[in-house]
Design goal:
6 helices, about 400 residues, OB fold (Dihydrolipoamide Acetyltransferase, E2P), conserved putative lor/sdh protein from methanococcus maripaludis s2 fold, 13-stranded mixed sheet, alpha+beta, Elongation Factor Tu (Ef-tu), domain 3, 4 domains
């Protein structure tokens, strides 16, 4: 059966063939766009919490260097040939222990000569005193002149002075003889010998060997100005502050140190305050020259506002910030008509805002927040990775719900 169409009907049919696909594509594109917008507008699920208050001890960290309480370069005080040493390099020596012997022969001769001179002037002084005594007795009987008595007194005084000078020379000779036996001035560990036996040494020869005390020892370090003030406020001028040190192995030294020196000004080059702590070192585990991690803890506890490190973004150079959830004042509810069509549940409209914070330290994976937050702020603690921009819509769920959904998503 043939269908007859008028020219008008054919024109309409042609237009329909042309227009219908165009309209279809337009409508389908519009619908798809609306659907995408609605799907994009679905809030991201996050977990929120308020900043926490923690009562902690004020502390600070630095890098320190172990130093001996006493470090002495042993030098020769008289000249002579170095005959012998009485120690092994690296040994522990005691105060007064003989460690070097300089040839004492010429100094012993000087002692002998000085002693002979003392004996000589002692005899002359005795004789002069006797002469003066006789002169004083004879002058009473007018048997000698006054000038004779005066001469006897002058002779006695001259010999007395010579006798005293001889005794001083003898004492000096004995001191120089004693200097030929070089003894350790302190208890400590002796180092590597710098001038060996057989060399001629003088007072200008420099160090023969170094001796460093081992117990107690010092650990010197510096604190930033801000840390210095923070610890000073939380301690009794550092008198009650505890100092702990940690070696390269990561183990903490078993003894607690006490601060025994605080410089009186901040170093202009580093902006820090030089300080020093003293440590017991009975087993010589701390060796002068070694570097240690230093932790200073004040005894007084202080309340701090903290947030988890995992919920912060940024870095120390550009600054840190967190996302805070606030009501979206532009909309009461999220979703609308298309949310109903596609069965997207309506929730209270919330959004995130950026909160720049200033941190000072860390405690148990939490940042101490000095400024930028209020105690009532709701901070995103889970789901941070899904937030891409300020103003983004979010919905709040419990930590348990978030964990279950993450676990379920991980199994797919």
């Amino acid at each position: 059966m043939k269908i007859k169409m008028t020219r008008k009907q054919m024109a309409v049919a042609v237009l329909a063939v042309i227009i219908v696909p165009i309209v279809y594509h337009k409508v389908s594109g519009t619908i798809s766009g609306i659907m995408m917008q609605q799907m994009m507008g679905i809030p991201k699920e996050v977990v929120v919490d308020t900043p926490q208050n923690k009562e902690v001890n004020v502390s600070a960290e630095s890098t320190g260097r172990v130093e001996a309480e006493y470090s002495i370069d042993v030098v020769a005080r008289v000249s002579g040939f170095l005959l012998k040493k009485y120690f092994k390099e690296g040994d522990f020596v005691h105060k007064g222990q003989l460690i070097f012997q300089i040839d004492p022969k010429e100094y012993q001769l000087e002692v002998n000569n000085s002693r002979a001179a003392v004996n000589q002037y002692s005899a002359l002084l005795t004789n002069a005193q006797q002469e003066l005594n006789r002169a004083n007795a004879l002058i009473k009987e007018d048997l000698v002149s006054h000038s004779y008595v005066d001469q006897s007194l002058a002779t006695r005084n001259q010999n007395s002075a010579l006798y005293d000078a001889a005794k001083q020379r003898l004492e000096l000779a004995r001191v120089n003889l004693g200097y030929t036996s070089i003894k350790s001035p302190i208890d400590g560990r002796i180092g590597k010998i710098k001038i060996t036996e057989g060399n001629y040494v003088t007072a200008n020869s420099g160090s023969l060997v170094n001796i460093s005390s081992t117990n107690p020892v010092y650990v010197s370090f510096s604190l930033r100005g801000s840390d210095f003030v923070k610890l000073l406020k939380a301690s009794d001028k550092f008198k009650d502050a505890q100092v702990k040190i940690q070696g390269e192995s990561g183990a903490w030294y078993p003894y607690i140190g006490k601060i025994n020196f605080v410089d009186n000004q901040i170093d202009q080059n580093s902006g820090s305050v030089p300080m020093r702590a003293v440590f017991e070192n009975p087993k010589s585990w701390l060796v002068p020259g070694d570097y240690m991690k230093v932790s200073i803890i004040a005894p007084q506890k202080v309340n701090y506002m903290t947030v988890p490190q995992s919920c912060t973004k940024g870095d120390a150079m550009s600054g840190y910030y967190v996302w805070a959830v606030v009501p979206d004042t532009d909309k009461k509810k999220s979703g609308g008509l298309m949310a109903k069509i596609f069965k997207v549940p309506e929730v209270e409209s919330l959004k995130v805002v950026r909160k720049d914070i200033k941190i000072t330290d860390d405690i148990d994976n939490n940042w101490i927040v000095e400024s930028g937050l209020e105690p009532t702020d709701k901070i995103v603690v889970s789901g941070v990775q899904s937030i891409t921009a300020e103003g983004q819509k979010v919905s709040v769920i419990t930590a348990e719900e978030y964990a279950k959904k993450q676990q379920k998503a991980g199994k797919k």
